[in-house]
Design brief:
Blueprint lengths: L7 E4 L5 H12 L3 E6 L2 H14 L4 E4 L5 H15 L4 E4 L14 H29 L2 E6 L12 H21 L4 E8 L5 H14 L4 H10 L9 H12 L10 E4 L7
Parallel strand pairs: 1-2, 1-4, 2-3, 4-5, 5-6, 6-7
């Protein structure tokens, strides 16, 4: 069932991983996408695949750490489509280190992209939703937004911030009929995880990064990694009319690894 036929969805970090899976699912649901990403080459490749499903979709290269670039992109999307019905804040980064060894650059990168980037984009798009008294805002948080993760103090702090931001603005925007929710994925099989298992193995003195990945599976009650499509399925629900009475929520997609 195409539940959001013709709705305009603005998606950050849409070129790969969770962002691409979300883009594909929303396109299959009938949405027209404004795909954005910092990596222009990857974005173009992703867009070519999405365009086969949603011919009216377009893409924009955009850096969520650059406010002027965000403003120009949002204006261009509004000029193109007239509205933005769904905002999917997905752009994110990660690094790993013991908190005592973290540099300010590592801390600032995670905060600037994962948390401040969500605020930057949302503050540019929300006024258009307020004007129309309608909209869906969805953010990719993380299981690390509910459970502090070793070697990810800076990442966890940024994602805890995303969840707090979601809860706060959900209350601010409720009077305008705008819902704000987050998805909290667990151990997701992406290129980001491929990097993280190598980093964690090195930090813990483990000879084979695949042993770390197996630990992730062992710690997940459903005994498999989360797939990007698992996250996209939940986003599809949150973007649909079926979730009209849900706001301020952080929905776990963790296979049981986090249950609160």
């Amino acid at each position: 069932m195409r539940t959001i036929e013709g709705k305009i969805a603005f998606i950050t970090g849409s070129a790969s991983g969770i962002g691409f899976a979300i883009s594909k699912r929303l396109a299959q649901d009938g949405a027209v996408l404004a795909m954005t990403d910092l990596d222009q080459t990857a974005l173009k490749k992703a867009f070519d695949k999405i365009q086969e499903i949603s011919p009216k979709s377009h893409f924009w290269t955009m850096d969520v750490t650059n406010q002027e670039e965000i403003k120009k992109t949002v204006k261009s999307v509004i000029d193109t489509y007239g509205v933005i019905d769904i905002l999917m804040n997905n752009a994110g980064v990660s690094t790993m280190n013991r908190f005592t060894d973290l540099t300010e650059d590592e801390w600032d990168l995670n905060m600037n992209v994962n948390l401040k980037g969500v605020w930057r984009v949302t503050k540019e798009i929300a006024p258009f939703m307020i004007q129309r008294k309608s909209g869906k805002i969805i953010c990719t948080a993380s299981m690390a937004s509910k459970l502090g993760a070793p070697f990810l103090a800076h990442y966890s702090a940024s994602k805890f911030g995303v969840l707090g931001f979601v809860q706060a603005i959900a209350k601010e925007l409720a009077e305008y009929g705008i819902t704000v929710n987050a998805v909290c994925p667990g151990y997701v099989a992406t290129s980001m995880q491929d990097r993280e298992v190598v980093w964690e193995a090195k930090l813990r003195g483990i000879d084979d990064p695949e042993k770390v990945r197996q630990e992730y599976i062992t710690m997940t009650p459903l005994k498999r990694l989360c797939m990007p499509e698992d996250v996209a399925n939940v986003v599809s629900f949150l973007a649909s009319p079926d979730a009209d009475f849900m706001t301020g929520q952080g929905i776990n997609v963790t296979g049981g690894a986090c249950v609160h």
